[in-house]
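Table S2 (continued). Query chain:
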Amino acid sequence: MNLVLSDQGESGADGDQAPEERRAIILAVLEELRPGVQRDGGDIELVAVEADRVKVRLKGACTTCALASQTLGGVRRRLVAALGTPIRVVPAVD
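Corresponding output:
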């Protein structure tokens, strides 16, 4: 799975969202990215949001893909652009 993402996104966010608004933004970004991940035989779901850490679960082909870390990096860049604040995106370990 090789998800190419633009660094352009919803810029101008101030990073001062309430927790429920922040979670809604994260979910919206993941939903926007999901079709590209699914085209490559995988999927991504939100597991938890803990302060500046977003935990996601990669599924399907993503679980064994050598490019999964690049996909997570692309997700992180999109989330930073949408949220307007630095965050970390980490895979959930089952």
